[in-house]
Specification:
By secondary structure, the chain is an alpha/beta fold. Strand 2, helix 2 and strand 3 form a beta-alpha-beta unit. Helix 2 packs antiparallel against helix 7. The longest helix has 13 residues.
Length: 189
């Protein structure tokens, strides 16, 4: 049985922080693969994408290219409307019954677990892996495996703001992603 880590997000754009989390969890939790799963419309965020789903997918492909254990799962991009982890994981566990799924969440989401849609049913489908981050409470009554990841204070919103202001994003994004952003003139570049 393959152990698959699911790392969801908007990846708008995908940055080195995403890759660092994926790599550390892959190795420290003993997983076989990490599936990056771009969201269509996460329930907890206002819809604010400034690029197309295809651009996000292309950038994610460039960012993960060359790592044999990194894959992209597009199930949430293929569905319309609000996307709940429970619904997605129900579909994935039916389609990949030979896999064991681990859902990777940041410390900010650990605190939010009691508010997740159908959290008790979701716990029957996945094991949560929580990424520790400074200044967040990691306490929860729900079962969460923890992985320590080196702190990298970078976010997609910070990168978008820098690009809009014409500031450098070197070493925050993979070079191929930076080139793609420039070529497609994304984020105000």
């Amino acid at each position: 049985m393959k152990k698959i880590g699911i790392l969801g997000g908007t990846f708008n754009p995908p940055h080195h922080g995403h890759l660092l989390i994926a790599y550390e969890v892959l190795n420290k939790a003993g997983l076989d693969e990490i599936w990056f799963m771009p969201n269509q419309e996460p329930p907890h965020k206002a819809k604010s994408l400034v690029v197309t789903n295809q651009d996000r997918l292309n950038m994610l492909s460039l960012a993960t290219k060359g790592h044999p254990n990194f894959n992209i799962q597009t199930i949430e991009l293929e569905r319309q409307g609000r996307s709940y982890t429970y619904d997605t994981m129900q579909l994935l566990t039916k389609s990949y019954s030979e896999h064991q799924f681990y859902f990777i969440i940041g410390a900010d989401m650990i605190e939010y677990l009691p508010k997740w849609y159908k959290i008790d049913e979701l716990l029957e489908l996945v094991t949560f892996i929580g990424v520790r981050r400074p200044s967040y409470s990691h306490e929860t009554t729900y079962p969460v495996q923890y992985v320590d990841v080196p702190s990298m204070d970078v976010s997609s919103s910070m990168i978008r703001e820098r690009l809009k202001e014409g500031k450098t994003v070197r070493y925050l994004l993979p070079d191929q992603v930076i080139e793609y952003i420039k070529e497609k003139q994304l984020y105000g570049t």
